[in-house]
Design brief:
Number of domains: 2
Number of strands: 2
Strand content: under 5%
Distance between the termini: 44 Å
Structural class: mainly alpha
Shape: elongated
Largest sheet: 2 strands, antiparallel
Strand order of the largest sheet: 1-2
Radius of gyration: 21 Å
């Protein structure tokens, strides 16, 4: 997430603009900041131009859109757990390193693909621990 300083004390937080959903969220934020007179015309124009380029690149991307996004909230939570979450956060793992201590390893669909790499990594870690103990 990129932080953009505005004329107010609050920074403008941009999501990743690698896909159409991220571009749309960022565009909405720029429009809101410009409408609230927190961005001048020159800076808003630069952001709009950059988002136009990002939108073109997102259209050309071969990536399929995801069903979930990382949490983004422009307003703080009201103290009762009511924020403004757009969708549940999607967390991903990075095999094979994350597989070593993963609790879902026994029923993970992707583990078979990484199993040999995980075993090699576990052997290296065990050798390192033994070397440190000596």
């Amino acid at each position: 997430m990129q932080v953009i300083r505005t004329s107010s004390a609050d920074p403008l937080l941009f999501p990743s603009i690698e896909d159409a959903a991220g571009v749309q969220i960022a565009l909405n934020q720029v429009i809101r900041q410009f409408g609230a007179h927190r961005l001048d015309r020159k800076h808003a124009g630069v952001f709009f131009y950059g988002l136009q380029i990002a939108a073109r690149l997102a259209r050309k991307s071969d990536q399929k859109p995801t069903e979930t996004v990382r949490e983004i909230c422009e307003q703080p939570s009201d103290g009762y757990g009511e924020g403004c979450i757009l969708a549940p956060e999607k967390s991903t793992c990075e095999p094979p390193g994350d597989c070593v201590n993963c609790r879902r390893r026994d029923f993970c669909q992707d583990f078979e693909f990484w199993e040999t790499d995980v075993e090699e990594l576990e052997e290296r870690l065990a050798a390192q621990r033994e070397a440190e103990e000596e």
